[in-house]
Task: inverse folding
């Protein structure tokens, strides 16, 4: 905080933070807000163009990086334009500190900006959600974390994902501690070690990751006081399995956009969960939710309406974007104090017992493995290529439990787009989780009688290409090839084939490692 103050950082200033997973993430977050500034999480895995766009919106006064990222091309290119603080894994300043440390300014008010978190934007520009100190405090002080539930929270989510707000601030503002997970995707045995060796009491997992751990080793949740799962439509089987096998663990199905500070609702899952998708529950303390029709009138139970959220936790808006802010953060007609409510774009309904159940999106936005994805942003990159006349992107689940982004492109006259080259172009502009797993050329996009793209008529991508590697020679190779094919939904896989080139991703790799351990009795890392 003193180093930032010495560099002139104060209230409402932004501090760009580019760190790998380490205790420095906690230290720098604390130091930034202590200096009355707002931290802006950045990700070294983002393409340079996206980092440029985020920096242009956030306008950071200082960049804080670790030694590994200090040598990266994007940081190097900005080092002569912005003050650079290089820190070690504990957050101690190694280079760039001012000659004389400053006195950190006091935070002027609870409404002061604490951080700005960037999400996908339908216009092709990332949106920076501005969250205040009061918003963070509201999340941390919810009754769900009382009675020691947040004594020790596992920090394993990406810093740029708003789950990090829960992982850092909920334990610290309740007198607890943050347990920093090793780098890489969280596995069941890493979770088990965190609980039994480091005393972790609570963890948040995206729905997709929760489902994988519940499938491969549900006993890994035993010993936790609270496990939260959310981000996509939850599997009732997975939730019930964990609730049954870990009866002393409270399983919460949570919901909340970045614009409402991580979680807005919660639902406690019981082992006798009714059939069908679980509700997203009731609002957190101090937050209000409304299910409204197009005229902003409340709808009766059982009728589908749009979900609006109000009260504590609703963010300030989108940094530097008054238009989208006015569209989504609207006046609350039910508040006497002239407050605002956030229009989520999610369609929901009230259940007979007073919970809210998720139904669908009102627009094209999707959640994929915990990430919010605007298909329009991907379509814009593809349609911007000269060889593409039109593009359409959606999520398909051709293999049960494996949801993937698929893009359909119509070639411009006289061209033959190369799907691999188009994927590389998307990866140059957008994060890896927004790169389609398959890009399918079509002569024309099929349309419904109303002129909209006919999703049901879009063909499944041809994932089942013949194996390019040699055939298995041993029984063990045959088993491994069979596991590859089974998990990827293929007829066959060759002994030299690349799991990821055939359509695999990190969550499927977690399933693969678990299957290999079971079938071959070997220890193997993801």
Result:
């Amino acid at each position: 905080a003193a180093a930032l103050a010495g560099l002139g950082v104060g209230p409402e200033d932004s501090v760009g933070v580019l760190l790998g997973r380490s205790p420095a993430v906690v230290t720098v977050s604390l130091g930034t807000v202590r200096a009355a500034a707002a931290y802006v999480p950045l990700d070294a895995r983002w393409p340079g163009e996206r980092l440029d766009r985020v920096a242009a919106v956030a306008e950071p006064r200082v960049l804080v990086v670790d030694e590994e990222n200090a040598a990266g091309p994007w940081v190097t290119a900005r080092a002569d334009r912005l003050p650079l603080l290089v820190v070690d894994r504990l957050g101690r300043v190694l280079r760039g500190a001012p000659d004389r440390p400053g006195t950190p300014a006091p935070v002027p008010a609870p409404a002061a900006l604490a951080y700005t978190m960037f999400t996908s934007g339908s216009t092709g520009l990332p949106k920076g959600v501005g969250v205040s100190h009061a918003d963070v405090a509201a999340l941390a002080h919810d009754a769900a974390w009382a009675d020691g539930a947040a004594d020790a929270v596992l920090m394993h989510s990406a810093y740029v994902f708003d789950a990090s707000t829960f992982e850092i601030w909920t334990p610290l503002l309740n007198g607890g501690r943050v347990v920093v997970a090793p780098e890489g995707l969280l596995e069941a045995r890493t979770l088990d070690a965190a609980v039994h060796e480091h005393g972790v009491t609570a963890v948040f997992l995206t729905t997709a990751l929760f489902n994988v751990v519940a499938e491969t080793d549900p006993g890994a949740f035993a010993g936790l006081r609270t496990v939260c799962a959310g981000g996509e439509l939850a599997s009732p089987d997975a939730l019930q399995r964990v609730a049954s096998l870990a009866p002393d663990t409270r399983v919460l199905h949570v919901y909340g956009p970045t614009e409402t500070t991580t979680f807005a609702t919660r639902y406690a899952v019981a082992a006798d969960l009714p059939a069908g998708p679980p509700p997203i529950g009731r609002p957190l303390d101090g937050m209000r939710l409304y299910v409204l029709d197009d005229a902003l009138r409340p709808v009766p139970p059982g009728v589908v309406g749009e979900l609006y959220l109000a009260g504590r936790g609703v963010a300030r808006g989108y940094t530097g974007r008054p238009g989208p802010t006015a569209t989504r953060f609207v006046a609350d007609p039910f508040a006497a104090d002239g407050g605002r409510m956030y229009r989520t774009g999610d369609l929901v309904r009230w259940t007979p017992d007073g919970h809210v159940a998720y139904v669908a999106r009102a627009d094209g936005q999707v959640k994929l493995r915990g990430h919010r994805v605007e298909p329009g942003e991907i379509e814009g990159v593809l349609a911007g290529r000269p060889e593409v006349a039109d593009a359409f992107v959606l999520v398909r689940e051709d293999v049960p439990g494996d949801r993937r982004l698929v893009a359909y492109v119509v070639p411009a006259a006289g061209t033959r787009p190369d799907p691999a080259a188009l994927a590389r172009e998307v990866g140059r502009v957008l994060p890896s989780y927004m790169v389609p797993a398959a890009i399918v050329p079509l002569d024309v996009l099929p349309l419904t009688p109303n002129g909209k793209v006919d999703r049901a008529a879009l063909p499944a991508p041809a994932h089942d290409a013949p194996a390019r590697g040699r055939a298995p020679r041993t029984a063990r190779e045959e088993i491994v090839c069979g596991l590859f094919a089974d998990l990827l939904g293929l007829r066959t896989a060759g002994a030299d084939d690349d799991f990821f080139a055939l359509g695999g991703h990190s969550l499927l790799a977690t399933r693969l490692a678990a299957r290999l351990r079971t079938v071959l009795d070997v220890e193997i890392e993801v």
Remarks:
- The two ends are 38 Å apart (CA to CA).
- The chain has a mean pLDDT of 90.
- The CA atoms of residues 214 and 238 lie 6 Å apart.
- Residues 506-520 form the longest helix (15 residues).
